[in-house]
User: Fold this.
Amino acid sequence: MLSALIGAVLLGTAAAAPAQIPLAANLSAGVAPTARPRPLVIWHGLGDTAHSEGMDAFADRVRELYPGIYVHNVVAPRDASASDESRAGWWGSASGLGDDVCEQLGEIPELVGGFDAIGFSQGGLFIRYYAQYCNDPPVRNLITFGSPHFGIAALIPCPDPPTLACTLAARAAKAGIYTAWAQRNLIQAQYFRDPARLDEFLLANEFIRDLNAEGGLDDDGEPTGREHGGLGLSGVENVVAIAFDEDETVVPGLSAHWATIDPDNTTAVVPLKEQQLYAQDWIGLRALDKKGRLHLETCPGRHMEIGGEGECGDKVLQSVAAGAAVAI
Ligand SMILES: *[C@@H]1O[C@H](CO)[C@@H](O)[C@H](O)[C@H]1NC(C)=O
Ligand SMILES: *[C@@H]1O[C@H](CO)[C@@H](O)[C@H](O)[C@H]1NC(C)=O
Assistant:
C-alpha cells in the first residue's frame, strides 16, 4: 500500500506535506510563503542518461500531475555529454560521482528548502550517497525503484545488444572484483557484495559497505567499526524502497529491500529485519520503521518495469495526485 505513504511522500499536496517556500517569496519582506509542490530530483539508472526519452517522459508525467512542480533530472557527472553520462554508469568512482552531484544539487536555487528524491536502480544508491553524506539541501522523502541497497552478488547483465562500456567493464570485473583498481574504477565492483567472500568485501570495499555502515576489516581481519555511514537515513521523512517481484537483473532482487544472500546457504535470502543492519540500526532504518516511515513496497514485473500510465510507477505518482489509496 503505497497510498498514504506516497501521499506524504511524493510531493505533497499542501495537506500532506509541509509547505515549501517558493523562490518568489521574499522572506526578508515577510511575504507569506505559498504552498506549492515540493521539488523533485530524479537520478536515472545504469546505462541511462538524465534526458533520455524515458527519463524526460517520466519527468513530464510528474509535471502533468503536479503543475508548477520543479523537477531536476540529475546529470552525472555534471555537464557530461549523454554518451559520457551513460559510460559513467559503468566506469569511474561511485563516491566521486556522488560528490559531483552533491555540488550540483547544492547550487540549484529551487531546491533550497529541500526536495523529494527518486532513484532508479543504481541511481538509488547514488541518491542515498547524497542523503547520507551531503544532504544540503536535505532530502525529505526518498523513493527508490529496484535499487541494490545491500549490494549485488552477481554482475548486472549487459543490455542486448551489449554496449562496449558494459562488455569491457564485465571483462575487467571478472579479472578481480575486489582489487584496488576495480574498486576505484568499476562502478558495479563498488557495490558488489559477494556472500562467499565477505572478508574480502569488508576489507576492500568502501562504497556500499560504508553506505550501510557495515564497517570494514583492518589488515589483521579485525573490525574497524561502523562510523562511516554518514548521516544515515534517520533524518529522512520517509524511505520508500520498491522491489520488483520478478527482478532477475539485481541479485538478489530483494536487495531493493536490503535483503542479502545467506552466506551459509546461497539459495536463501535474508530479509532486512533479520539483519544486524536492522537489529542494531546501523543507518536508522529501524528507527524509521518504528515510526511507520519505512515502506518496503513491491511492483509486479521484471527489473524497472514501472510500466506506462496507470501501471505501477505511475500509480505511485497518481495516488498522490488523486489523494486516493492505491495499493501497488
Ligand atoms: C525583499 O524585500 C526587501 C525588503 O522589503 C527589499 O529590500 C528587497 O529588495 C526585496 N528583494 C527582492 C528580491 O524583491
Ligand atoms: C537453504 O535455504 C533454502 C531456501 O530458504 C531452504 O529451502 C533450504 O532448506 C536451506 N538449506 C539448508 C541446508 O539449510
Remarks:
- Residues 3-21+34-322 form a domain with the Rossmann fold fold (CATH 3.40.50.1820).
- The chain is about 30% helix and 15% strand.
- The two ends are 6 Å apart (CA to CA).
- Residues 26, 28-29 surround 2-acetamido-2-deoxy-beta-D-glucopyranose (ligand 1) (CB under 6 Å).
